[in-house]
Amino acid sequence: MVKGFSLTQIALHWVVGVLILFNLIFSDDMTALWRQIRQTGPMPTTTGAWLHIIVGVLVLALVAWRLTLRFTRGVPAAPAGESHALKLAGDAGHILLYVLMIALPVTGLLTFYGGITALGDLHGGILKALLWIVIALHVAAALYHHFILKDGLINRMRKPG
After folding, report:
1. C-alpha gyration radius of the chain
2. Mean pLDDT to the nearest integer, 81-106
3. Residue 13: CB partners within 8 Å, gap ≥ 6?
4. How many other C-beta atoms are found inside a 10 Å radius of the C-beta of residue 91?
5. Sign of torsion, CA 44 49 51 54?
6. Which residues pair with 76 in a beta bridge?
7. How many Å apart are CA 77 and CA 1, to the nearest integer?
8. What is the pTM of this model?
9. Do 106 and 60 meet the contact criterion of CB atoms below 8 Å apart?
10. Which of 112, 134, 140, 160 minimizes the C-alpha distance to 20?
11. Is 42 left (phi over 0), alpha (psi -120 to 50) or beta?
């Protein structure tokens, strides 16, 4: 088991996080474009929509890199003394985050370029809402570890180990 995350793993964590928040917050151009396409057919793509697509593809590529590092390098063990329930919740949360970080770009690309319109509502509705919830839980868990448990867990994403 590794002692801490590598500098690359830490950088990827924060870069992917910022890119995802960007796409979640600034998705209006894509939503408007998709609504227009559904009503009147294809139209020129706006800069904001292109940016949303590019950021989504970048997230997908960086998540693939993150997963490669996770499986080849490993991750640090849970903090000493952590309960089995808390460890299971953490593992489940990370799995769900990775599933969503893959599912959202894939469903977006399949909707926009594959013409699978049914995935559009899944992408911009259920998956997007679920990602917001999981991100909030992820941040809350990190803050809980830092301020309540005071186990140093949050430092693993601040300093290479």
Report:
1. 18
2. 97
3. 5, 66, 157
4. 11
5. negative
6. 2
7. 7
8. 0.93
9. yes
10. 134
11. beta
